[in-house]
User: Fold this.
Amino acid sequence: MMSWMHPTSARSWGIGSDFPLELQFWGYIGECEGFHLEAEQPVASLNEMMWRRWWDIFITHSYGCILVEIERTMPGLSPEEQSRRAAARWRHIFDPPAFQGLSGAPALQALAQRYWSPFNDR
Assistant:
């Protein structure tokens, strides 16, 4: 989703995106590597298969999904504590630039590490 904004201190318009950073980054890796999400597309490599799995994790275990689960299962916690716990869980899934959460998939971790700086610098 795109949103327009007009900074009050500037005379020009800017455009921003509220598309989650982790999905933008994972899509960037897929684009650079030529990976596909379409189910009818054959998986060309182990890296592409792992990339597809992590894409699914980002969709189903976003920070918002984690927070909703914590709010539902731990209603006695303060909103600040719920948010802190959700952030800690999320950092385990998406943790640039080292991507320790991918240590079980070293080749995918190496891709994430290689592409983080170019993605972040664009």
